[in-house]
Amino acid sequence: MTLEPPLRKNRERSDHGIDSGGGEPSGGLRAWLVWGTAATVYLLAMFHRNGMSAAALHAQERFDIGPALLSTLPMVQLVIYVLLQIPSGLLADRLGPRRSLLISLGVMAAGTVLFAVAPDAPTAIAGRILIGAGDSLVFLNTIRLAALWFPRRHYSLVSALTGLAGGLGQLVSAAPLSALLTAFGWEVSFLSAGAVNLVVGALVLLVIRDRPDGRRAQTHALLSMRESLAEALSHRGPRVGMAAHAVIMVPFTVLGVLWGYPLLEEGYGLSSHTTGVLLTGAMLLPMSLVPFLGRIPGHYPRARKPMGLGLAWTVTLVWLGVVLWPGGLPPLPVIAGVILVSAFASVLAPSISFDYARDGLPEQRTGAASGLVNMSGFTSVMLGVVGAGIVLDLGLSFQAAFVPMTLLCLVASTAMTLLLRNRRSRAAKK
C-alpha cells in the first residue's frame, strides 16, 4: 500500500517561498534567488575542477612533467573530493548549506592562490588538494538548498539546472581560460580566479539562508556516519542513483577534468582555439534543452527509468564505438558527435541520479545518500583520468587510453539495469 502525500488545497503560498501550511516548501522568487547564488558557487567550483584540461599543456611546461605526473594534478583533487563526499554530506545535514558554502569558498580560494604561485609540482599538488577539499562541499549543498526551498516535484528540474550551472563552469574553464592563460600567463590567471571566490563569498553571506523561514537547516535526529550510510544503502533509490552517476556524467567529465584538450590537440592536431570552440560548442545544445528535459523525472515519474537507462547505455555504446574503431581513432566528425552525446548526458545526469538518491529518505537525511551518489560518479571519473594517463605513459594511443573509462561505464550501466530489473521481478512475484 502506497502512502500518498497530504493534500495541499489549503496551502497558502508566498512568492518568497515560505510555506505557511507546514508542508513542503512552495518555491517562489526568493527560492530561485537563493538557489541561483548557490549555483554560482557551483559554477565557480566547476571552473576550478575542470581548469586543468585547458591548463594541461601549460602545466606540463611550467612544472616539466610527463603525462602520468600531469594526471596526478587533477587526480589528487578528485581523490580528496571523493573521500570527502560522505563527510560533506553529513556536514550538509549538520552545519547547513550557508556555512558549508562559505567554508568551501575559503578553502578553494586558498588552494587556487597556492596553485597560482607554485614553483614546482609538489606545491601545485598541495594547491589542488585544497581545491578538491573545498569543492567537495559545493554540489551537495547546492542541491540541499533545492530540497529545502522547492517542492519535491521541482527537485529534478532544479538539480538539472544545477548541472547546467556546472556546465557553464566547464565552458568558462575551456576556451576563456585558455585565452586568459595565453594572454596573461599562469599566475595572473589563477590569482584572479582565487579573488573571484572572495567576491562570491560576500554574495553568499548576503543572500543565502538555509530555510525559507530563516532557521538554520538541521536534522531532527542526528545519525552517526555508519547509521547514515546504512540507512541510505538500505533503499534501492540511492543504489540506482550511484550506478547512474557512475556512467552518465563520467566521459565528458573525464574530458573536462584533463583529457579533452590533449585528445583533440595531440590526437587530432587541432589548435588550442579550435579545441576550445569544439568543447564549448558541445555544451551549448544540451544546456539549452535542460529547462525542458530536466523537469521530466519530477513531473512524469514513470519516464525516469527509460530516460536514465537510455542515457547510460547510449553513452556506453558510443564510447565502445570509439575504443573499438578499426585502425585507430575515428574521424573527427565522429568523435565530435561522441563528445556532444557525452556532454548531453553529463548535463542531465543530476536530474536522474540525485532524484533517485532521495527515494525513501526523509528530507532531513538526504546528505549521506547524495554523497554516496556523487562519490560513485567521481570515483569512476578518477579511475578514468588516471587510467588514461597510465596508458599514455606506456606509449599507447589515445584510443587505448579511454578503454578503462569505457569498461567502467559498461559495468555501471549493467548494474543500473540489474537494479531496476530486480525491482520489477520482485513486484511481479508479489
TrEMBL record:
Q: Where mainly located?
A: membrane
Name the membrane topology term. Multi-pass membrane protein
Q: So where does this one cross the membrane?
A: 29-48, 68-88, 100-119, 157-184, 190-208, 243-264, 276-296, 308-328, 334-357, 369-392, 398-420
**Residue ranges of region Disordered?**
1-23
- The segment(s) forming the Major facilitator superfamily (MFS) profile domain are 34-424
Q: Which UniProt keywords apply?
A: Cell membrane, Membrane, Transmembrane, Transmembrane helix, Transport
Q: Where in the cell is it found?
A: Cell membrane
Q: Does the keyword Membrane apply?
A: yes
**Record-level GO cellular component terms:** plasma membrane
Ranges of Basic and acidic residues composition bias in the record: 1-18
Among its keywords, does the record have Protein biosynthesis?
no
State the protein's name.
Transmembrane transport protein
